[in-house]
Write a structure and sequence with these properties.
Layout (H helix, E strand, L loop, with lengths): L3 H11 L6 E5 L1 H4 L8 E6 L6 H15 L3 E5 L7 H8 L1 E5 L1 H34 L2
Parallel strand pairs: 2-3
Antiparallel strand pairs: 1-2, 1-4
């Protein structure tokens, strides 16, 4: 169930038709946020947001929620953060198809990212153990 704060965020997002998708993630999405928790929000406009757009949306959200805002532009995010957004996020705005495309992107990027991550971890283990 979405909190009152989540509904306020959803109302703000409705005033931004350029946003194709918005996903709440982190402690707010998990329902574990405390009074000092920030608000983690991932958004997509189908293109990278410019600095003015990002700052304006952050200011608007912060003024309504009273929280610091961690705004993630989905056009610029990669793994592993993308995976956290897709698997633990709550869609606040946009069509289901947009979220489906984001999930597909995550799966493809994960397939590319995981072998690299495993290789880096193996190299670190060898360096640490002295193999």
């Amino acid at each position: 169930m979405l909190s009152r704060e989540g509904h306020r965020v959803r109302e703000i997002l409705a005033g931004h038709p350029e946003l194709e998708l918005a996903v709440l993630f982190g402690s707010q999405a998990r329902g574990t946020a405390g009074p000092a928790s920030d608000l983690d929000l991932a958004v997509s406009a189908g293109r990278p947001l410019n600095t003015d757009e990002r700052m304006s949306l952050i200011a608007e959200l912060a003024s309504v929620t009273g929280r610091s805002i961690d705004l993630v532009d989905l056009a610029r995010v990669g793994e592993p953060l993308l995976g956290q957004i897709v698997t633990g996020g709550v869609q606040l705005a946009g069509e289901r198809e947009a979220f489906g495309r984001l999930m597909s992107r995550h799966l493809f990027e994960q397939a590319d990212f995981l072998p690299l991550r495993e290789r880096i971890l193996a190299e670190r283990r060898r360096a640490w153990i002295g193999d």
